């Protein structure tokens, strides 16, 4: 195989692969990373508005992300991350959204 024709993995693919391991099981870290919230203000507001409930916080983070705020990652990467966070209700909702988008 010609080395010139071999495709390098894109930065987006690398981000998708690394997202679950970078974020881990904490939804506040997930939101901070996904929304590029370097100073933590967005997540502090989300936590206050959602009364610290992890599933509510995750859905609010996803609403912000769907509005075009934050990093570009794949749906599959989001699902893998949410599964690692043990947010099964949110994971199910995200998988349903993904299936609707695919149909």
UniProtKB/TrEMBL annotation:
GO terms for biological process: signal transduction. This is Death domain-containing protein. Coiled coil: none annotated. Residues 58-98 form the Death domain. It comes from Geodia barretti. PROSITE patterns: DEATH_DOMAIN.
